[in-house]
């Protein structure tokens, strides 16, 4: 009878083991854990690409500006006169920044659950071993099976792993050459004999003058026969902007990133630098975050299409970490076999006393690991559960050795207390030794739409093109203006970055260009691959026919009584980043401006806004409010605020919407 009970216990054990070692599946399909990305600190950001090959350096610099005024100017010291200036796209920089991410341990919730279940099973088996005190063979079998599957479980679930037209006044001691206009920049190359002469030239040409500390640094550069690039930017708006990057190519025997003049500003700087060379790059003061060798592939990724046969995109793929870069500009800076070293630093003034000079050594693939605050908590729990069951396994071995003397000589309560103390100590040590940091994250559903993004991009573009009648009669500039205004009113967010949707060639953005008298609308994937839609093709018209009509979608959201169906609205907003229905609704509201939809949208929005102060952390409610504000913005052609916590901005937006409705209808019901 005892042998039968042992067999039954082992049968239940096998069932339990199979349950926790099998991937956990929910009723709504596969579990997609929340994905985290490193969040940049709240200090000025500078991103750059440094390409070094054959004693030639190309430096692509992008700086964020936050301040008043529409004209900015600065001086860039270089070891040699540039041979070429170019307007660079921010798309490649954004692609590199988004994809070359460290290994962030964040969402381990499924592993926490499995570890807890495993610890409970081991505890039950431990008690069973005590019950089988006289049967050494049975206890040993249980322990061996536990150890075998514990090793299998642990090994299979590693903890994851600057003004055009400014007069150029001549100053003795400063030679001015190679005046160029590149994009929004006016560029001049300056060669000075002393810092005072350069300071006088800058002042006469409406640049900020040099401080005493600046002059010391400039004199050092002049002694080393460096030149200076005077860059003046004119921008269209004030506040925070990120102008297009500027690319400069110049000869040099060693790769260098000038930073000394930046250090005299007195503020901290977050630098994100991508060094592309034949080997891995090193520089004192810069930390590696991801290093890998990249090879060109003509078959980087298959792009699913709804209007043509599936096409194969080309680009570059990392050898070790398989990060793919498919942005069209990548061919300008990358080559097959090159190494990309992503380096970063949070720099204080004292950290910028010297320029960064790079050395190169044999490439060793590397990916820095971080724990988010949530990942830190989850990891501590998992390790604690492991300590718990391991301590019980060890005590089970002791039980097996003592045979029949267990019940009288081995106090079970003391063993449990000791195991509990060890578990609590492990948890405390883990929380103290692992420092979690703030990250940006995407929910599982958003991550799921990310995977489907390439396929759905054509549909999203189709919705936009269909409602705008394929931009018939529009020039490229007119089409850009129309799309840009639509994005502002819709308040849509970039699925990959979380920023307001805009025109561009970065991941998640949309661009439009003219080719052979045809307009091509393109959406960019996470890897920077453009997914295009030629608006004059017959296949595009076939796509239009296959898309669900906005009127059908409206019927799903608005009930027969004219009120909004919260469940349908919640579903679309929750799944909405890549969902065609959302784009269909917003583009139809923008184009037709149906006044009969105003009351229901406005009242529903006010209802949900009243719930926000107490539920601001509720992501689903926030997404619904953002979608409703986008619908109202498209209907009234008014730009909604981006920050829901700015109550004043929200109230101004609602008042503008009410004024539009009163003027348009003449009889406001709100």
What is the structure about, briefly put?
By secondary structure, this protein is α+β, with helices and mostly antiparallel strands. Helices cover 43% and strands 24% of the residues.
Keywords:
670 residues, alpha+beta, four-stranded antiparallel beta sheet, 20 helices, 43% helix, globular, disordered C terminus
Q: Would you write up a description of this structure?
A:
The chain has 670 residues and is an alpha+beta fold. It is built from 20 helices and 29 strands. Strands 4, 5, 8, 14, 16, 18, 19, 20, 21 and 24 form a ten-stranded mixed beta sheet that branches. A four-stranded antiparallel beta sheet has the order 7-12-11-10. A three-stranded antiparallel beta sheet has the order 27-28-29, with helices on one face. Helix 13 crosses helix 19. The radius of gyration is 31 Å and the shape is globular. It starts with a helix and ends in a 5-residue tail after the last helix.
The fraction of residues in strands falls at 15-25%
- What's the β-strand tally? 29
Q: Per the principal axes of the C-alpha atoms, what is the gross shape? A: globular
Low-confidence regions: 1-34, 66-70, 154-168, 444-449, 666-670
**CA distance, first residue to last residue:** 79 Å
Note the topology.
Layout: H1 2-21, E1 25-26, E2 29-30, E3 35-38, E4 45-53, E5 56-63, E6 65-67, E7 71-78, E8 84-87, H2 90-99, E9 103-105, H3 109-131, H4 136-156, E10 174-182, E11 185-192, H5 195-204, H6 212-223, E12 227-234, E13 239-241, E14 246-251, E15 256-257, H7 260-263, E16 269-277, E17 280-282, E18 287-303, E19 311-318, E20 324-325, H8 330-333, E21 338-347, E22 356-357, E23 359-361, E24 366-367, E25 369-371, H9 373-402, H10 406-409, H11 412-433, E26 439-442, H12 444-467, H13 476-490, E27 510-515, E28 518-524, E29 530-534, H14 538-546, H15 550-557, H16 566-574, H17 580-592, H18 598-611, H19 619-636, H20 647-665
